Amino acid sequence: MDDIPKDQLTGALRRGSVKKHVAAIHVSGKLTLLQRKLSNVLLLNAYDTLITNQVHTIDARTLCLMIGYNSNDTDTLKASLRGLAETVAEWDMLDDQGQQEWGVSSLLSYARLKGGVCEYAYSPALAAKLNDPKVFALINLNIQRRFTSGHALALYENCYRFVRTGSTGWWSLDLFRRLMGVDESEYYAVYKHLNAKIIKPAVKEVNKTSNIVVEPEIRKQGRAVTDIRFKIKENPQLAILNIDDGAGVRRSEVYERLRALGVSDRLARQWIAEHGEDHVAEKMAYVGAQRGVKNPVGYLSVALRDDYTREAAAPAVSSERAKVLERVRDLVAARTPTQRDADRRLFLSMIEDADARADFERHGWMSALNTGAIRAFWEELEPEAFEEA
């Protein structure tokens, strides 16, 4: 095809810019919500050296903290890594010469846990596709963690990469069901069920949670629905967190301090874009004031995520309260991600005072206005939890 003059090409092959918009990697939707989040964190961690390095590493505890796993729950981490290695990524696109290219690869070529470090790799072909912003869009972690449904996050990932074109293009229902991970279900072979249980809830969460708004459209053959596409536009209320080329950010003092701490270039820029330099600097000061922190990057990740404040470590806090807060942190860390989410929702439903509720929403289990209630709540779950404290 390289020998064919352009004036003899027809249709899409003549439009060189099409390759910028047609490209897409489809990943099986059978991943759980946590596995999908794990996949995005691993990619973010590896992104700066995706092509130059064959193997990538990340501290396993940091990885767990960024995803929301219990940092000691290695079985869940192993199962999630196994799931990524068993998951297929498939692409079908025009290459730089206008030729159609189809490819398939496991999402991770291998993963290994050893000495507290997670080591992993991508196949060279997949790494090249993931590294190309025209082909694959990095998912912002601050938006990712808002999702509570794996189907909604899967829909978001598959729509977000088409935000510049305004539409996903038509997908057959068979492909869509595969992207949502329900292709082997006879129940979801019926469009009425697929629409009620998968499409509508996923669209609702994407539009409420993310920086884009999607609207489904269907195509029929007779009475049967055969294809679906999603119109996409930016959510004006949440069109935030876009990361620039990094030139300005990399000159900042906060960026240099993050890099010195061991934070990757991409993650450092993302944290600054998400939270602002002053906020990141505040959390770094908070982490620096803690004693015996063995994993400052992981601690900083959680401090930013849960908005830890210096109040929890201030000298004015009594020794007893400090011990109670420390014990609460341990209790929370010992719970599974699902349990932690349920605990938080349950406690929040029990708060009647508006100020106390707002304080818990901002500070979580470190909420100063709810210290007594928090202790009582955890004593209900663990009757002997505070004996030492």
Automatic annotation (TrEMBL):
The lineage of its organism: Bacteria, Pseudomonadati, Pseudomonadota, Alphaproteobacteria, Rhodobacterales. Residues 18-159 form the Initiator Rep protein WH1 domain. It comes from Sulfitobacter sediminis. This is Replication initiation protein. Belongs to the initiator RepB protein family.
